[in-house]
Amino acid sequence: ELKDIVFIIQSQSNSFHSMRSEDLKRDILQQAADLGKELPVVLLIHQMDRHEGAWTILPLLRDFSVTYGKNSSWIFFCEEDTRIRVVKLLETLGRYDCSKEWFLGKALYDEESTIIHHYAFAENPTVFKFPDFAAGWALSIPLVNKLAKKLKSEPLKSDFTIDLKHEIALYIWQKGEGPHLTPVPEFCTDDVSSQRADHCATTFSNFLPLCGEPVKKEDVFVAVKTCQKFHGDRIPVVKQTWEKEAALIEYYSDYADISIPTIDLGIPNTDRGHCGKTFAILERFLNNSSARTPWLVIVDDDTLISISRLRKLLSCYDPQEPVFLGERYGYGLGTGGYSYITGGGGMVFSRVAVQKLLTSKCRCYSMDAPDDMVLGMCFSGLGIPITHSPLFHQARPMDYPKDYLSHQIPVSFHKHWNIDPVKVYFTWLAPNTEESLKGKKVGYNREDL
To answer: Is 256 helix (H, G, I), strand (E, B) or coil?
Structure first.
């Protein structure tokens, strides 16, 4: 029965995202009403956020078990852009015996072991399957109850959350004591309008959001963090690839080199962390750049980014709100902790967010503290939410499953390690590659990249 399914939308509190989640909730309830069925429970994760870590799901399972553990059969999770055909979903879940432990989803796997999964299953990374959240994924109630019991006796470790879908699958699998992910062919990430979508219970509708006109070039200020030792090899890549897309760009270094030109902020380079440099960039943006530039993006000198796609994406956000946007990681979220935007994929700030941050007393605890984590801590303390976009990437295209990238028009990648960064840019990020990315499954081979 439909009322036996609890729907959980992996929503966010930023106004653009919460609106999309509310739309999806309305759509699910409308479909249920049209079927003449008793309405199911539909919950938005950001609304049950009693603590910062709700988006990591595991901290919520004990509550789910207490509230739904007796009268429900399934908990079905999805993203705000997942589209659900309720009748087909009911029929699909009906094939599985809900008195048993099931972990259902669209299976992703690593083609080669990757840094973002701590090189797990290095012998044969393809053996371990984890769910593509965009297609929706489901846990049977007996499995939820079992996990809740485990969480009660062994609280979550205070650790990093880097790729949640992989980490949840690892937690459920319990080194072989728990179930593997069961792939469900009806959980899809095809576009709603594709021919293949006919057999699907779920589809995915959002490759790159656009809400009206893209933000003007002059409304995005780009700050590139560099240092003298990388002026010769990394900066030329930026100049050959995405620099010309940016109307306002400055390179910040520990050495003023007029040929680039770089600006010496008077902050000595540190081997790691760069907190001092990043806060100096934020101060400069607020005090020196034209008071009207609503958006700031801070990137590393080995970040590859599409400014034109970023401008489309930013059309969906209100620069009058404090926005802090990028790829979200977490630290210590099982026990409190905070979320942060990982720096390598690019960190995007509305001017209002920078103002609020610098008005507060929150600063680096040392010059070489990790800047992205300190920013996460500061914004968390200010009650300003981190906004996640999966289109920003902390690693290289080859570090992500092909099927996962196939429903994205990416905004950024990071690192030049063992790749030709210019080629990666022109394959994945250059203007005019949108159509080829959207139209076809994205294929690339290792030799190329």
So the answer is: coil
- 2-204: what fold? Spore Coat Polysaccharide Biosynthesis Protein SpsA; Chain A (3.90.550)
Q: pLDDT digit string (tens) for 4-35?
A: 999 999 999 999 999 999 999 999 999 999 99
Length of the chain: 449
Write out pLDDT tens, residues 125-180. 999 999 999 999 999 999 999 999 999 999 888 789 999 999 999 999 987 789 99
What are the phi and psi torsion angles at 184 (to 5°)?
A: -120, 115
Among 385, 377, 342, residue whose Cα is nearest residue 360: 377
* DSSP assignment string, 91-133: HHHTTS-TTS--EEE-EE--SS--GGGTTTTTT-GGG--EE-G
3-state helix, strand, coil in the chain (%, to 5): 40, 20, 45
Looking at the domain 217-439, which fold is it? Spore Coat Polysaccharide Biosynthesis Protein SpsA; Chain A (3.90.550)
Q: What's the pTM value of the predicted model, to 2 decimals?
A: 0.95
d(CA 189, CA 67): 30
Radius of gyration, alpha carbons of the chain: 22
- 181, with CB counted inside 10 A (0-12, 13-18, 19+), is buried
